[in-house]
Give the backbone structure.
Amino acid sequence: MKKEPFDPEERFGVSFSTLKRILDLALLKGGEFSEVFLEYRIYNLINMEEDIIKETAESISIGLGLRVVSGEKTGFGYTNNFEVENLERVARTASSIAQGTREKASLPFHPSLPPKNFYPLKTLLNQEPLKKKISLVKRAYQSALRFDKKVKKVKTTYTELLQYITILNSEGLLISDLRPLLKLTCVSIAESDKTREAGYYGGGGRVGLEYFLTSLTPEEIGEEASREALLLLEASPPPAGEMPVVLAAGESGVLIHEAVGHLLEADFNRKKTSIFWNKMGKKVASSQVTIFDDPTIPFFRGSYNMDDEGTIPQKTILVERGKMMGFLQDKLSSRLMGMPPTGHGRRQDYSSIPLPRMSNTYIAEGEFSPDEIISSVRKGFYAAKYQGGQVEDSGKFTFSVSAGYLIEEGRLTAPVKQATLIGSNIDILNKIEMVGSDLKFGLQTGTCSKEGQEIPVTDGCPTLKISSMTVGGRE
Amino acid sequence: MKNSLFKESSLKELAEFLVNYALKKGADEVEVTLTETSEFTVDVRWGNVENLIEAKSRQVGLRVIKDKKTAFASSSDLAPETLKRLASNALERALFSNSDEFAGLPPPSKVEFDLEALRLYDPEIPRLETQQKIKIAEETEKIALSDKRITNSHGSTFETREAKTILANSNGFLHGYKETLCSLSLALQAGETDKRVEDSWSSTKRHFKELESPEEVAQKAVQRTVRQLNPRKIPTQRVPVVFEPTMTSWLLGFIFSCVSGVAIYQKASFLEGRLGERIANPAITIFDDGLLPGKLGTRPFDSEGVPSQKTVIIEKGVLKNYLCNTYAARKLNLRSTGNAEGPGVSPNNFYLQPGETPPQEIIRSLEKGLILIRCLGLGLNPLTGDISRGAFGLWVEKGEILYPVSEITISGNLGQILEDIEIIGNDLEFRSIFSGPTIKVRELILAGY
C-alpha cells in the first residue's frame, strides 16, 4: 500500500473543504474548469570560491496558483496569503475570465497517487547534515584547483531543492508529488601568458547525496571542468562557412531540444506559429532520425511522477524514422486540439501558468559507430561542448559551441572554441546523414526557458553527422 | 491582524523586528529587504483574451553576518515563526562559512532621498481599469492584423506592476520606495508557413502617459517583421556592420558583464586590471546612472542601501570605473558605485553617450555591409571578449538597403569592437536598462555559405 508523500492540509495549512469552496467559487461566472496548484519549496545553496565557503543561502517559498479556464481563455491569480478571505478574492478575480453565469459545480475530490515514483529517496535532502554537503563542495573545488598549475580560479556551487506540490481541480483531482532536485557544478578558469578560458562541468538530478558516491564523484566534476578550461587555452577560433558537422554524443542533445523539441510543444502548433503545425505524419527529418521525450527516466533532472497539472506522464514519440508523430501536450492544448494528453504541462512555480514543455528529450540510437562517423568526414567541424541554444517558431535556431575540434582526413585534430551553429530545423533534420549507436545524455544540470519560465530538463543524442551546416567562426 | 502586513507601516515594523531578532540571536550585522508586488497581465491573440493574470505577492530577504561569516535567506512566507526560524538557520549556517575580512554591510551614512525627483511612481497605473487594459492590448493587435502581410500573431500583451521595497539594516538604515511599470508588447509573423519571419516590438515605461501608443507599437512590430520577408543567405566575409539601437543594447549588456566588479575580482573578465587604460576609441563614453528621473533602471539606493549615483565607465575611450557592490569594492580597494543586487551587481541605467550623426546618414555611409537587426543565441565570453551569435540583418550596398539576410552568424571580439566603433548615432532613447544609439563597427566576420 503506497502512501501520500506528505499531508497536504498540514503542509499548506489549508483544508480540503476550503479549497473545494474556492474551486467552486472560481466557476461562478461560467468557467468550465478550475484548478488550485499548491507549492512549498525549500531551496539551499552553498558557494565556494577563493578557497573559502563564501556564501550559503536558504530560500523558502509557499504559494497557491489558481486557474480558471473558459474555452481558450485562462484566468489566473496567485498568492502567498492563505487566509480564506484572500483566497476568495483571488478566486473571484480569476473567475471573471468567463462572463456568464455558473454552468457547473466542482466535483467531489477523488484522492489519487502517481502510479510510480521515479525518485525514491532514503533521506530528504534538507535533512542531510550541512557538513556533508560542504565536504562535497570542497572536494570538487580542490580537485579542480589541483588538476593543473594553470588553473587560477575555481567556483563550485551546490544547490538542492525540495518541492512539495498538491494539485486539486474541479474535475475531482487531488494528487501530490514530492520532488527532489540536486546539482553540483564547477567552473574552472585557467590562464596562460596569452589568455584565460573557463571550463564547466556538473551533475545531479532528482537524486540524493549518494549520487556523488556512485554515479559521479565531486572529484570527477572538478577535474572535468579544469580539463575543459585547459583544452580551451590551446584552442583557436573555428573556421567560418558551410561544412560537414559531427555532433558529439550527449551534450549535442541541445540540438534536438532547440531544433525539434520546442516547436513540437502543442501550444505553438495549436496557434499555428510553429513550422510543424501542418506536418503531422509527414516527413520532417532524415529516415534515420527517431526522437522521444520521456519524463519517466528514473532520477533524471527532467523527470516527474505527475506533471504540474496532475497528469501522469508518458514517454512520447515525436519523430519516428523521420516522420512527425506527436506533440507535447498540456491539458489546454490537448482539449482544444482534440488530442490525448501526454503529461507535459509544466510550470516554473505556483506563480506561473502551465505550458507544454519538454522533459528528457533525445534522439534514439542508430547503427553507426562514432569512429565510422568521424572517419567519413574529410574536412569539417566536430562540436563537443555547448553553452546552449535558441530557436524561434519559424524554425531558425542557433546553438553556441564552447569547445570542439577540426576534422581533417577523418580524424579529430586541432581544438577550437566559441563557434555558433545556425540553421533552419527541417533543413538540418533532413541533412542528418549518420546516427551513431552511442546514445548518451548531456549533463544533469540543464535549464530550459520559455516565456520567462525556467524548468529543469535534460537532453541526449548519439554521435550525429550533418552533411552541411553553417559554422560561425573567425578564420 | 488580517492583511495588516500589506500596510506600509507594518512592512517597516516587520523589517525592524527581523533586524532586531537576528541581532538578539547573535548576529553582528543584519540586512532585511521586504518587497510587495502587485502585477497584472493580459494576453490577447487574434482578438481574444487568452490569459488574464492578477496577483499580489510578498517576499523577504535576509543577510546575516557573524564573525565576518555571511549567510543569506529568503521567504515568501512572512509568518513570524517562519521568519524566526529562517534567521536562526541562517546564523547556524554562517558558522559553517569561512571568515572573510571583506564581508559586511556598507558603512552607515546619513542620506536624504528625494523620491519625488526620481519619478519612480505613477499613481495612474494602479487606477487603470481592467477593461481599459484589455482594450489597449486588443487595439494594438488589431491594428497590426489589418496589415495583410501579417500572417500570424503571437499576441499582444499589456502588463502593469506596482512594487514597494523596504530596506532595513543594523546600521540604522530604514528606507523604502514605491515604483510602477507598464509595458505593451506585440509579436508577429509574416509569410507562409515554411517561409515565416517573425519579430516583435515593445514599450516599457514607469509612467503610463509615456508609454508608446497602440498605433506606434503595432506599426513598429509590423515594420520590423515584414522587412525580413524573402531573406537571402550571403557568402562568408568581413564587412562593416551597423548596429540598430536594440543591438547596441545587447552589446552594452555584454560590456556590463565585463565591467561588473564581481566578474573583475573573480578574474572572469578580459577587462580585469585595466582601470585607467585606453580600451576603446576616444569617441566612446559610457555611463551607468541610477538617478535619471523616471527611467527604468532608476532607484534611490541599491540592495544594500548605498545611494544611487552616476558613474562613468568609459570616458573618451579610457576605462574609468568598475560597477561595484560593497563586497567587490572592498576586494578591489575601490568604492561601491551603488550597484548591489543581492550578492551580485546589477546595472542601473547603463548607456552609451550619443554622437551627432542621424542613423539614416550612418546607413548611407555604408558602401557595402550589414545592418544588424536581430540576434539569436548566446555566444558571449567575458573572459576573452569573444562574440559569436546567430544574426539577422539587412544587406546594404552604396548606402541603399537591398534585401534581408538570415542564417548567418557574426563574430568578433569586444575589445576590437570598442576600438572599431567608427560612428555613433544621435538616436539614444532610454528603452531598457541598457540603452544606446545606432553605431557603425568598422568590420565583423559574417559566416554564411
